[in-house]
Amino acid sequence: MCRQFRIAGRVQGVFFRDSTRAEARRLLLAGHAHNLLSGDVEVRLCGSVTDIEEMIGWLNTGPPKAIVEQVAEENVACTHPVGFGVA
Length: 87
Hints:
By secondary structure, the protein is α+β, with helices and mostly antiparallel strands. The chain contains 2 helices and 5 strands; from the N terminus they run βαββαββ.
């Protein structure tokens, strides 16, 4: 299963992407996290439903310096990425 998220709030410049990568690796999820020009962060997760659900809980809070205002979710076609990248 793969899902994509758009996280809004104070999520750039607060180690959101790097912290997301660490949490995704802990949960053995593949995908990516990258900054958008809008100031949001896009996160794509591929893995088990249980692990993605746990990661959703983390995305709603983020790292300590982040202020997550909204997490928008959408199902996407699985691309079977290898590992978790940050751009």
